[in-house]
TrEMBL record:
Protein name: Fungal specific transcription factor
Species this protein is from: Apiospora kogelbergensis
Keywords: Nucleus
UniProt-listed InterPro entries: ELYS/MEL-28_NucAsmblyFactor, ELYS_dom
Positions of transmembrane segments: none
Pfam short name (any one): ELYS
Domain ELYS-like: 38-278
Subcellular location: Nucleus
Length: 325
């Protein structure tokens, strides 16, 4: 078993120091894109403060408190990526000198750092040090997230051996940055459906929900029904607002038709009517037309004179409902 406290035994020769000016600039750029923190920053901060991890997680103790070295995100961002051998030694010491966490949890973080050097070097270290496979998978996933290699990261982070750690951050990152400019949310939705994490951060929940709305309104409606009543109503209103506000032209008609034809229960029916008739949704351009479409969808058509000037929307509804209108 390798002694992880011995810097030279862990890193060997530093003749090919991986942290070049270009690589440091790339890491700092990704950090800015991610809102000020890489995933390794979050790991180091959690390792310093013991926050954010499930007490039953097999990798919890990576993130347990260090008694004498309390890292925070800002300090973590100063230590990684290390700009010199001296800073790398400081980072190594921060990780290894604690008595409050077990060695194989420390080794997992070192494994992440060694991936910066060479994948073979990291794998060799993991074999010599006995880093459990699930720890390697998790850290490799975070390493790829930090490099915006989202598809590769997902292959690791959605592995069935892992628990859903950092799920809120992973979902938020995949929605914001792995969606190809807001056109494709496959990665974020694949992660959510595969891992089935319990999201706690309202921002992450809203981002995931918005991705569902843009991808499949029926799926978004089903998701909203899993939430407590107050949040469920908020998400339902968000569903309606997003559908009617996001699209333009013929797409508006198609999306509005899909929304109006959803199988609402009695509570949702009331929310739908109130939101578009008297609530904040009344300001939406297609609010009145969508209410009319809903009446048609549930068989409550009133007078033909109430159709107004919504021929395009109505035609879209006819097509979207298979000609039932």
């Amino acid at each position: 078993m390798i002694d992880c406290t011995k810097f030279d035994r862990v890193f060997g020769s530093l003749d090919s120091f991986p942290y070049t000016r270009k690589s440091i600039q790339e890491a700092d750029s990704h950090r800015r894109i991610f809102g000020g923190a890489l995933f390794i920053d979050r790991v180091l901060a959690a390792l310093g403060h013991g926050k954010g991890m499930s007490p039953t997680s097999p990798i919890t103790h990576i993130y347990m408190a260090i008694e004498t070295h309390h890292l925070c995100l800002s300090l973590a961002s100063k230590l990684y990526p290390p700009k010199s051998e001296e800073v790398l030694r400081q980072l190594h010491e921060q990780i290894t000198k604690s008595n409050s966490i077990e060695d194989h949890h420390k080794l997992s973080v070192i494994f992440y750092i060694l991936l910066d050097f060479d994948e073979d070097k990291a794998d060799s270290f993991a074999n010599r040090a006995g880093v459990p496979t699930k720890y390697q998978i998790f850290m490799r996933g975070l390493w790829n997230m930090d490099r915006q290699a989202f598809e590769v990261a997902l292959e690791h982070l959605a592995h069935p051996s892992l628990q859903a750690e950092f799920a809120d951050d992973i979902v938020a990152t995949l929605v914001r940055h792995g969606s190809q400019g807001g056109e494709d949310y496959t990665l974020a939705l694949a992660y959510y459906h595969t891992v089935q994490p319990v999201l706690k951060n309202p921002v992450a929940i809203e981002l995931l929900f918005d991705a569902m709305v843009r991808s499949n309104v029926s799926e978004a409606l089903a998701f909203s029904r899993t939430k407590p009543h107050a949040m469920r109503e908020q998400l339902f209103q968000r569903l309606v607002a997003n559908v009617l506000d996001e699209a333009r032209g013929g797409e508006t008609a198609e999306r509005a038709c899909e929304l109006a034809a959803l199988p609402f229960d009695a509570v949702e029916e009331g929310w739908f009517r109130d939101f578009l008739a008297t609530g904040n949704g009344k300001k939406l351009k297609a609010a009145k037309d969508t209410l009319m479409m809903r009446q048609i969808a549930i068989g409550q058509v009133t007078s033909a004179g109430e159709k107004g000037s919504w021929g395009t929307v109505m035609e879209g509804f006819k097509v979207g409902s298979g000609g039932r209108a």
